[in-house]
Amino acid sequence: MRFDVLTLFPGMFTGPFSEGVVGRAMEKGLVEVRLHDFRKYARDRHGTVDDAPFGGGAGMVLKPEPLFEAVDVLKAEAGPEGVGPVIMLSPQGRVLAQALAEELARQPRMVLICGRYEGVDERVRERLATDEISVGDYVLSGGELAAMVLMDAVSRLVPGVVGSPKSTEGDTFSGGLLQHPQYTRPPEYRGWRAPEVLLSGNHGEIARWRRRESLRRTLLRRPDLLERAALSEEERRFVEELRREMGKPSVEGDGGH
Ligand SMILES: C[S@@+](CC[C@H](N)C(=O)[O-])C[C@H]1O[C@@H](n2cnc3c(N)ncnc32)[C@H](O)[C@@H]1O
Predict the structure, then answer these.
(1) How do the residues of the chain divide into helix, strand and coil, expressed in percent and rounded to 5?
(2) Number of CB atoms found within 10 A of residue 100's CB
(3) In CATH, what is the architecture of 2-155?
(4) Annotated catalytic residue, options 65, 69, 118, 213
(5) 80 to each of 2, 84, 109, how far by Cα in Å?
């Protein structure tokens, strides 16, 4: 997996990607991160990459030329295989969710454009970017942190990056639900015991407990996810029981959608 990141602040990426899962994946050659300071493609000797918005208003807007030219160079180097999707990080894009991270993890490479200031000239969005992705409904001061969030979420889905595929398959959102609670040693801490079933060694019971706790937690915290999740009849009945216990309105009759 290769990420080509167009940024005015390449130094921001050093810390987060020198350690941890992505850092190790880069060492192993499973993930490659190429940082491109697009100021290099500015047209004047001052390295100007932004200008005042046409029509007036606050702040500065990133000019189109440096971004188009940086991507042109990448495309020329890549040849017929191409550079993959050209993704602009933007609070106006489709919101990054696990399903989108899974979709992106199937790409061999992609370009990430990090905006700054008041944003990016609209022609970049219309004519250069093939996708626009947001990391949530809030405004960051630049696209770098958003790009790092995307790269982390996508990299850990690349085969070999996280030890066993089981650890990402069971993650929150992967199966459409929140993950069950986790416990580890000691079995008792300050008088608080881990659930006995987890200490029992009975794998069938453990799997059933986990699935039910996952359903309970999702109903409590993210009922919107439950409505889209693929549940067995027994699981649907369990959720209905929980709803009744909690005094929540039933969704029976809407087909679970
Ligand atoms: C201050 S923001 C510009 C916001 C813009 N004026 C608007 O209202 O849509 C500067 C840059 O930060 C990045 N950014 C800000 N919030 C983001 C978010 N939620 N997701 C992804 N990128 C974001 C984008 O690259 C954006 O161009």
Answers:
(1) 40, 15, 40
(2) 16
(3) 3-Layer(aba) Sandwich (3.40)
(4) 118
(5) 16, 11, 13
Predicted local confidence at residue 249, as pLDDT: 75
Q: Which residue in the list 4, 50, 91, 211 is annotated as catalytic?
A: 91
Q: What is the pLDDT of residues 151-177, one digit of tens each?
A: 999 999 999 999 877 778 878 888 899
Side-chain half-sphere CA neighbours of 86 within 13 A: 17
Q: Which CATH superfamily is domain 171-257 in?
A: tRNA(m1g37)methyltransferase, domain 2 (1.10.1270.20)
Phi, psi values for residue 13, rounded to 5°:
-85, -10
Give yes or no for residue 119 CB within 6 A of ligand 1: yes
Judge whether 91 counts as a catalytic residue.
yes
The pLDDT value recorded for residue 172 is: 83
List of the chain residues with pLDDT < 50: 253-257
Q: Whose CA is nearest to atom 2 of ligand 1?
A: 141
172 alpha carbon – ligand 1 mean position (Å): 26
**Residue positions counted in the chain:** 257
| pTM for the full predicted model | 0.93
Active-site annotation holds for 156: yes
Distance from the alpha carbon of residue 135 to the mean position of ligand 1, in angstroms: 10
Contact 164, 33 (CB under 8 A): no
Fold match, 2-155 / 171-257? no
| CA–CA separation, 99 and 105 (whole Å) | 10
Ligand 1 mutation target, pool 140, 144, 151, most atoms within 8 A of CB: 140
Q: Where do the structural domains in the chain lie, given as residue ranges?
A: 2-155, 171-257
